[in-house]
């Protein structure tokens, strides 16, 4: 059923204000219908809306500076290409602050990661050789041990250094055998990060969220301390549990 949502419900879901939603409806960025004097937005329109609302908010170039240890972010990029850009930016900042880096791969291949990061100006290959960046195959670990496999790799990386660990894994909705497994993994990873000195991000590509992207996002957001969004225009927006937007 294509449920109709109120302006406030959409604002709450997107963690923005009703004023912003009214502006998007007025300028056509978000499609809605008027019932009497009130706007209504369908779930289909909301899912199709994607994340282009980033362009309405000028992102701070210091987005990563707002992060502290024990932070678990949900990343949303409008394409897989931008997942690499988001991670390269994240790691570039982390390395500049002297942190240890961990990259977990679900759908990405090691060589693909190194090449893509290099295109975005981050020399990951040199850091791997110097032992400052670890790249691990989370998909293979999951195939062998279930969610315990990738969790162990994150945990081992966190205890390998006395520095703060900055880590990224890029899952998809279908990277585990079931949606329940994925949510369990994210929930346990969230606790692991809270128990250690870790800044972690799990970026998803919009194209991988599937037809029920709204439900998927709501489930995932419950197990993260904030959300980072990146659009095709390269703009980045950070929203956190406390409502702070950069």
TrEMBL record:
Query: What SUPFAM superfamilies does UniProt report for this protein, alphabetically?
Result: Putative DNA-binding domain
Q: One GO molecular function term?
A: DNA binding
Every copy of the Helix-turn-helix domain together lies at: 4-46
Domain spans labelled MEDS = 72-217
Q: Which domain of life is it from?
A: Bacteria
Show the Pfam families listed in the entry: HTH_17, MEDS
* InterPro entries noted in UniProt: DNA-bd_dom_put_sf (IPR009061), HTH_17 (IPR041657), MEDS_domain (IPR025847), SinI_DNA-bd (IPR010093)
Q: What is this protein called?
A: DNA binding domain-containing protein, excisionase family
- Organism equals Eubacterium callanderi
